[in-house]
Amino acid sequence: MTPPKSVIKYVETISGVRFEIHYAFTQPFPTQYGVRARIQLDGKKVRSQAWNQHELFAGEKNIKGIVSVQNGQDVRFPFPFSELHTEEDCVSSAIDGGSAAIEEITVEFDFVTNVRRRRQTKFRAT
User: What is the dihedral of CA 117, 34, 8, 4, to 10 degrees?
Assistant: First the structure.
């Protein structure tokens, strides 16, 4: 069942191809709070981004991949589509006692009251 105020989209995929997430806020979207986007791949949180209320209508937003800190430097890893599994693969996996791959991209948006800078260009929602 789809939660209230949710949208479900199905995307044609090609194994190993990279993808990005693009979205924009437009009028009459409320501006009394900031917004945080949380990205999950197969149910695992991989990225979040936040904007204060004054930045919401400043054009399209995009999330191009996972950001990891390695040796004090931000390293970006693109989002790739995983290997596709056929219905027969899922049935075989279930018969063998394994679980079928979820292969799901979830983007959740939350209103936040205090978006503050972390480092120089990062934002953190509280």
Answer: 140
